């Protein structure tokens, strides 16, 4: 069975070398159309804090695209979903600030286990197991314009609005699965990461806001997407002739080759067209907004696709 | 960075830091964008010209303002007290004591706090106060009224003429010459440039209007002139003469079939026609020979001319007037009745006054008037003979501009004149009625003045608020309304174009012919060929080209005649000039001499060199219109113009490489190359400074407009003005009825150089969107566009609408006038927690809403207490949409001494883009959002880029907006390299193409040269069979949003008359004729009936089966039963409900009556016969009135049909329905 911890260990060793990891697809029907003797492979070309570049081999197009789609839209993260505004004397109206707060990426490591969807939770409208509470309390007493940023957002223990005794005793273990800074704005506890600007206030203006962050996926709202972009390419030489390159005089001068072309053999001029060929090498680059690390995104996708 | 070879190096910067700095710390000296102050200069300077301290150059005059000049022209009114006994001392007619009344001085002050207000420390009033308090920005006007008493001693008195609206940033405005920093301190935009008036909180301006060029004779050929009377022909010459105070009189000289001519002018909207000979003689007492020689000018061989002149002279013989004095007396005698001049003036004096005030009013001296009239006659005869052609009054060559300040001065002058007339009239009425009149008694005079309305300010406010001109003279204008418009701050583009728009005149809007709307080559460089609306005002409402100026100050040209004489011009008074060899030299409609055509051409050249080089004191704004001899073309001459209100524009003079200002008259005879490459040696005289100068500001802002099909650029000029952008940076101080705001406006990556010049980045108008041109999903058919859902969720094109609601306790519906109302919550509102009134959620104790409160329709927005009943009443929010209270503004009274009675509430309505909202690129490519497509399903490029917007490739072939394709490429390259791409039109050529320039940049960024990219389907992940054109295009969100357009409904309010739903009554989208045609064509008759009948004005009605009438229903109350006495055959016939046909029953009763009479008398009584009877074919006759009115049926008809029947009945037409 696929083991996330095992692969994570592997990944952490890899930097930019071209190391092939045997990668096991749990269910055989994913590779029915593929050459049966080849195992799917993942080769990580580059791994940085916010991006991973890898080559996926020996899978078919549908699987590769599913991977892309799931990374973009099905990985849960936490994001501010409800904003209760106590005081807002800034120049920005309430709804603008609420929108901006929603877009702030929050650290969502191990989101699957560390928090529940509110809709799956036994509470009525939110509890410590399905929500995070953040507050923003800033006032400017200075003559200079002050920047209100995501660093001003403080995570506070969840305060139950209703009488807590009414809630059934919850045996959830989510709280223990949370990492230290779970739900904190990305970059708050790191050096050299510029925070996200929320508003600018001047002397006498104040912002007092209570936010509830919830778990969600990007299908609900773009703010839950952990990825800022997923690049995806196959067949850089267009050997499969899926597309036609439009050109005016010289196709080679007008169409620059992609970086990934180095990975493949250029077609010979007299090479016959193989109409049975299928794409089986996919070049990915996943960039995240910091709420999840790139490896976590990729690993989670694998897990998710395996569990389907 | 790629660099196109052979192109000038640009400064590719967005100026972000500079702009931010300028916005945070506006310059303390001068303004951020000085060009903005320049382009409204005609508005402001023409207003400044009203005053003696205008700061404008004096020119030849003494620098006095238009108001002072007007006072001089008004002169004095004379009235007599009627006490004279008719002796030698008091005059033969017994007029009595003579009183002269005149206005000596007029002053208009800056807007100030009224004296009543004792507390205000700052006594000046600033425009923002007027705007926010919804009042007018006005200054006090005073006149010094003078009169003489019986002893001839001059008495004087200051009279208050009310508060006159003041133009913002004019010399009377308190913001005059303020720097951007000061403007911001006074709650204005840092870029505020003024030029408008504030009336009841609205910004209104006087629109430029096209008028015939002043002091220039134009030949007209109008078939309608022949209908003016017997022997009139289609030929005439016309001159619009303008006095120094900018009031004008138009003189038209009509050619009659007998060869003579009639002079036509208008006095107090009444037209008068006088034989020209009468005027010529009256002016200088000219002999017949003098007139003959003056017209012939030695051209004795010209028998056409000599015949006409002979006829002209002969025709005057019947008047038997020989001397000038006789003519003046004749004129005075005839015109004394209408002119209202002093009774003691002689007829000759009245006649002289008439000529002075009505004929050639731009000239003072009668001799010069005479010369000018002779010139007009010569031009008239030349036109008739075909020696010269008729001039086109629709051509900008013969046009100038009515300046706002000049119109304002004209109105003030007329009002002051009316004040004097009213005083005179009042006194004369008293004298006539025998009331004791004493010119020495100041109290009596005050009483007279109290009967006269001095409030000029109110009149002017009314004029500005409505645009309607209330005038007894008509001011020599062709229209009486539509002079002013609101300067809407919808976005910056719309706002600034108000100040550059110029209208042809309301009169021409009704004209069926479209010749006036034509774009003429003469308009090049003065009126923008692109920036005109399509639809009814097309071609009538134009916009000035970017560099077009309007001259606003008088020039010093007094020395020009002597200068020209020194260089070969023959003087005007020379005894014998050969008209065949000389052409006329005129300066501002005044004959200053004659010259041979070659000499005239040389003079014109000299003048141009002098004026461009600043030599001989020839002003640069002098227009040198040299019309060469052409025999059949325009009438030759050297026409110099130095007056105000002319359109001029800068070009480069090739002879010396200096800047030249050229006018619309002279441009026609010039060869101006568009670019230096086009200069043709020996032909070109000038070259444009910039090939884009002929475009208006807005047309200049369309990127790569030279690549587009021209109508698309016209559309963009319209759509740029409908964009939801940034209306103002001082939003907190705006009280507009409706403001649209785009939350996240961006500076376009691709922009023309002028984008920065006109402060467009201070008021962004759209967003840079990633646009893919691909037919995907089918939701992009027919100009629809697909929006990326994630893009939308991240705030793409998020907008806000600000609406105003005013709660004025002085003007509450249902409350009596002067009701005792106060804002607040009364004692009848329970406050305690458990029984708290629901209004407490929205309102504070002061009765006003909390800022930030969310309102839906029906929520409380204000509360007030009725002081009499002590009950609390509420004002409710009536809008359909959810709104937030953004601001609550308490509006005080003028003096600031009364309790709060009026509040202004700004409501904020959020408008995230929804399906059905309209978007457009800057190339006339508009489309409606049809779907918000999930990001994962959107196509993507190899780098993972997904489009924000998908448009269909079919949007391009027929519309040919190549500019948009180039913008897409340029935007993509600009985004990759961080360049602000210059999109100024006419920068590329066939050798140096745009595609190559941006293609190289794209290659350098690793993209395909043409901007295409292989893309993948988001759904399957497969590469598309074709590569996709994807790039960055600046998108505008238009203000037309589905939420504002009511959509469908089944029931609702209807029009009381027709009972049909209407747009005014929250109606749905009209199901119109063409939609009806579609349903008929489809054969969907049930749907047709449902739309047009059941959901509209379905009604049932009784129709008489007998006579077919729908409207003759009567009711019998048969529930009580009816008794019939005697042997009459039956009950009156009626339906089960007692309904009957009144027509048929009356006919039946009449027939019964006749039969009864016949029975009684035994005679056969004839039916009474009508005078006229109409025979109707038998197939059109329904049943005879046989069934006595009881036979009715219910039918379903549209209600409006019954209404039509009733209306027709009122005209004597009966509608009969046949019931089967």
UniProtKB/TrEMBL annotation, chain A:
Domain DNA-directed RNA polymerase RpoA/D/Rpb3-type: 51-308
Cited InterPro entries: DNA-dir_RNA_pol_30-40kDasu_CS, DNA-dir_RNA_pol_insert, DNA-dir_RNA_pol_RpoA/D/Rpb3, RBP11-like, RNAP_Rpo3/Rpb3/RPAC1, RNApol_insert_sf, Rpo3/RPB3_RNA_Pol_subunit
Domain of life: Eukaryota
SUPFAM superfamilies linked to this entry: Insert subdomain of RNA polymerase alpha subunit, RBP11-like subunits of RNA polymerase
Keyword terms of this UniProt record: DNA-directed RNA polymerase, Transcription
Pfam families noted in UniProt: RNA_pol_A_bac (PF01000), RNA_pol_L (PF01193)
GO molecular function: DNA binding; DNA-directed RNA polymerase activity; protein dimerization activity
A GO CC term assigned to this protein in UniProt: RNA polymerase II, core complex
PROSITE patterns in alphabetical order: RNA_POL_D_30KD
Any one biological process term the GO annotation gives: transcription by RNA polymerase II
Protein family per UniProt: Belongs to the archaeal Rpo3/eukaryotic RPB3 RNA polymerase subunit family.
PANTHER family per the UniProt record, alphabetical: DNA-DIRECTED RNA POLYMERASE (PTHR11800), DNA-DIRECTED RNA POLYMERASE II SUBUNIT RPB3 (PTHR11800:SF2)
Record's protein name: DNA-directed RNA polymerase RpoA/D/Rpb3-type domain-containing protein
Lineage: Eukaryota, Fungi, Dikarya, Basidiomycota, Agaricomycotina
TrEMBL record, chain B:
UniProt-listed PROSITE patterns: RNA_POL_BETA
Record EC number: 2.7.7.6
Residue span of region Disordered: 1-29
Cell compartments where the protein resides: Nucleus, Nucleolus
Catalytic activity: RNA(n) + a ribonucleoside 5'-triphosphate = RNA(n+1) + diphosphate
Gene3D superfamilies, per the entry: 2.40.50.150, 3.90.1070.20, 3.90.1100.10, DNA-directed RNA polymerase, subunit 2, domain 6, RNA polymerase alpha subunit dimerisation domain, RNA polymerase Rpb2, domain 2
GO terms for MF: DNA binding; DNA-directed RNA polymerase activity; ribonucleoside binding; zinc ion binding
UniProt feature, compositional bias: Basic and acidic residues: 17-27
Main location: nucleus
Domain of life where this protein originates: Eukaryota
InterPro entries reported for this sequence: DNA-dir_RNA_pol_su2, DNA-dir_RNAP_su2_dom, DNA-dir_RNAP_su2_hyb_sf, RNA_pol_bsu_CS, RNA_pol_bsu_protrusion, RNA_pol_Rpb2_2, RNA_pol_Rpb2_2_sf, RNA_pol_Rpb2_3
Physiological role: DNA-dependent RNA polymerase catalyzes the transcription of DNA into RNA using the four ribonucleoside triphosphates as substrates.
Protein name as it appears in the record: DNA-directed RNA polymerase subunit beta
Naturally occurring in which organism (per UniProt): Gymnopilus dilepis
